[in-house]
# Entry
Amino acid sequence: MESPEDYIKLTEPELYLRNYEDKIIIIDEVQLKPEIFPILRSLVDRKREAGRFIILGSASPDLIRDSSESLAGRIVYIELYPFNLSELENKIDLVLIKNVKVKAAIEIKNSNSPRMTKGNTLAIATLKSQQNFIITPSADDYFIKKNVRVCSIKQFINTYLPEIIE
# Structure
């Protein structure tokens, strides 16, 4: 919601979000529009589906606690730490950490035929993550190595992300 265009899209948030209820919706900088939480609660209650909304930005527990409607039972917090230089050099795009433990390392590829590079292998070994994913545009779902799964973003969000955040 950093751009005025995105902010304007949510002048009527319920109408806008309902038009995309079959899509994964990512809302960044949610702290700029805290009045959206009651609407998210209503939409989640109508159609319970894990990973349907991904809320980013300064969506701190304090912000949610202070909102007029609670998202209790409808939200999972994953604290994402900044990348360090070795992670960036070693080709990992996203690291999910929960309770100070690396839960998953994720690399996003534009190719339908991903391959493991030395950088990927080194990053995975360094992070010691429990699960590793390579996200591709393809709908395929398979292991490229014993502990590295290749899948689509939809498959990741619908199947594997709920397991990671439990």
Summary: The chain has a mean pLDDT of 76.
